[in-house]
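Weekly structure sync, notes
Attendees: PL, DS, HV (note-taker this week)

Item 1: histidine kinase
DS walked through the input record. Source organism listed as Oceanobacillus aidingensis. Sequence as pasted into the shared doc:
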Amino acid sequence: MNLFKQGFINLKFRKKILLICIVASCLPIMTLGSMWYYQIQDSLVTRENENLSEALNQSILNIDYKIDNYLNIVNQIVWNEEIKNGLTAEYDSNYEMYKFYNDTLAPTLATPPTLQTDIDSITVYTDNQMNPYDQLLRPLADINQNSWFNSTKDSNRPTLVASSEDEIFKLIYPIFDERRMYNNILQMEINYQQFFDSMSSLFEEDYGVAILDSDGNPVYSYETFSDRSLEGKFSLLESAEGVDNIESDFVIQQAELPSYSWTVYLYRPTDIISAATLPMRVTVVLVILLSILIMVLSIYLLAKVVVRPLEKLSENMRKIEEGDLTVSVFNSGTDEIGSLIKQFGDMVNKLNNMINQVYKSKIAQQEYEMKALQAQINPHFFYNSLSLINSKAIMAEQEEISQMTQHLSSFYRTTLNKGRSIIEVEKELENVISYINIQQLMHSNSFDVHYELDKSTYHYTMLNLLLQPLVENAINHGIDHKESSERGKLMIKLKRIENTLEFSVTDNGAGIEPTKLQSILTTKTEGYGVRNVHNRVQLFYGSSYGLKYESEMDYYTKVTLVIPIVHGETQLSHHVDE
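Item 1 (cont.): predicted structure, written out as tokens:
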């Protein structure tokens, strides 16, 4: 040991540095390279899981969007008072019955399948003694033997009926009758293949997808493998317990469709990933060897230079790394190190100039793109179109169409707000009142609205589009889902309390479950959502402002919005900056 130590001390300085650097550099490279070599498979599996998860989430969003679209259609039918009255009426003559069929039932049920090819048919089944009318109206006896009938006839919520074996997909929704004289069930037949067509194009090949309902029954399945021995090995169609037994053969991702208790599985064979890693492993070995060779040569060359100029260069590089681009690099020598330092100084100056040029050009490009985007948005064309529709509706004596176009014009004028995010309180109220008027027309005036507004607050300013999402939730999730026969009511209030404005939206709808009420402002919601409103308010005004909820099941829900009083757009900007 002493002989080795003495021999190392007696080495020339350049060789000593060379030996130390080679040993110190090669050991970490060899260690990291070895770890990388064995972790490539895990990395690719992780990446594949991420790809599967992204594809799965996109598919679920697509399914959710389609189902929401179907629900919107059936809701408009189920809550149509004319349809409901016609199905529960006592007819004295076939003429009255035919008039209901021809004027109300047929136009309402036949229009959606005409507009959307993925909807095959919409049928109402009733136990009222009415004559059948093609596929639009059938006796309830036609379906009372179906397995799903007993679970849906007494439900007040829509039910999905799907089966991969029979390739059927239906949306069942009982039509609520306050008098409970008859049972009326709406059935929407959806084209099974068109609904799930996106599932068969997630990847080009070598993947499978399966969807199970809450009872573990298959709703949909699809497989395409180049290795035929893998087909049918995935046993999800019989039981979800098979997932644990095949994880060594497949990379699996699963996600829930919570609203309907569906579980979606997406899986790909691990053999594909293993085969893809072989070229990469060979590349890793070559890169490690090449890196060691380059490092040895580099250390040998660096060991020849003088230490002092390198230290100066290192100090200047450290300052540049910290972002100080004003550093001036000088060296009086004319050797290679001196030349390197001089070139480094020139590079810093050029880098500084390039950054400034790129920064300025980027700003100019963004301004141009913004102007180009704004130029594409021509609200005058939209308003003129609505005005023309309104004129045509008045000439045709279509008062409801005229009202709808006027409300739409007012709603979008205040929504767009000339591209500004700050609006007067009065304009914000005009926006939400227009929205409510539109909803009343869409709901056939099935609910009442009451306003209590302090007009002395109208000249203040606020962030726009804060109230409309609250009213939308009150109507869609409150009044639309109330089970009592009491007429829907919506109350909008505005009052000033010291230096704050307090808005409140109250409905007498279904209410919110206590567990959901506690987390409604902290969990992610669908669409624009109250969480978005709450976050915007707190971001602009501070954490002491925002939304507050109170609710009682089957009785009422009240949401309160509190913001500070601001007298103008300029003051609001100052407030946000603070």
